[in-house]
UniProtKB/TrEMBL annotation:
PROSITE patterns: ABC_TRANSPORTER_1 (PS00211), ABC_TRANSPORTER_2 (PS50893). This is ATP-binding cassette domain-containing protein. Belongs to the ABC transporter superfamily. Macrolide exporter (TC 3.A.1.122) family. It comes from the Bacteria. InterPro entries: AAA+_ATPase, ABC_transporter-like_ATP-bd, ABC_transporter-like_CS, ABC_transpr_LolD-like, MacB-like_ATP-bd, P-loop_NTPase. GO terms for biological process: lipoprotein localization to outer membrane; protein localization to outer membrane. Keywords: ATP-binding, Cell inner membrane, Cell membrane, Lipoprotein, Membrane, Nucleotide-binding, Transport. GO terms for cellular component: membrane protein complex; plasma membrane.
Amino acid sequence: MNEPVLQTTGLARSFTQGGQTIDVLRGVNLSIAPGEIVALLGPSGSGKSTLLQAVGLLEGGFSGSIRIAGEEVAKLDAHGRTITRRDRLGFVYQFHHLLPDFNAIENVVLPQLVHGAETVPAQERATALLTALGLGHRLTHRPSQLSGGEQQRVAVARALANRPALVLADEPTGNLDEHTSQVVLAEFLRLVRGEGSAALVATHNERLALKMDRVVRLHEGMLECA
C-alpha cells in the first residue's frame, strides 16, 4: 500500500482571546493518499484556513504530528520548512497573489527557477501548464490584463509548476462568480489529476466539494467524514 502523501495525528491549535482559550483545532487526524483530492468543508471560522496553514508549514503554535511523504515535518526549523514547501507543496489561495510586474508565463517560471530549474525547461513547463488551462494566448499578459478567472488559472499553474506531491487550496474559487468557479475548479481538478498530485481543497461550497474524491468536514475543531 502506498504511503500517505499527508498524515496528521492529533493536530491541535488554540488561541487566547479576551482572557479565554479558543480551541480552533482539536486533535485533527487526516490521511490523504497519493493522487487523492479531498474537499475540506466547513463554514467561515471553522478552522479550515488554520488547518491548511498548519499542513503548509506557514504558521507555528501547533501540537501534534504532520507527516508529508513519510517525513515528520511538524518540528522542522525555518530552513527545513522552506525546503519542504518548495519541494513538496503547492499553494492556491482565494486571491491569486500573482506578482503584478510579471506576466503569466513569468509568474509560473519564477518558482521553478527558485527550485533550481534551468530557464528553457522552466519556460517550456510553464507554457505547457498555461496552455492546458486555456491560456496559451495569454502568456505575455500581466495580471492586471487578465480576468479574475484567468488570474486564478495562472495561480493554479504556478502551484503545479514544481510537480508538488500535495497541493493546498484555500477557497480557490471563493472570489469568482458561480459559473467561473465551476469552470476554474473543473480545470483545476483535471490538471491536478493529470499531474498525479494529491490535493486538500478548503471550500464552503457543498456542490463543488462533491466533485472531489472525498469530503471531510471540520466541526467544532474536529474532523469528521461528511
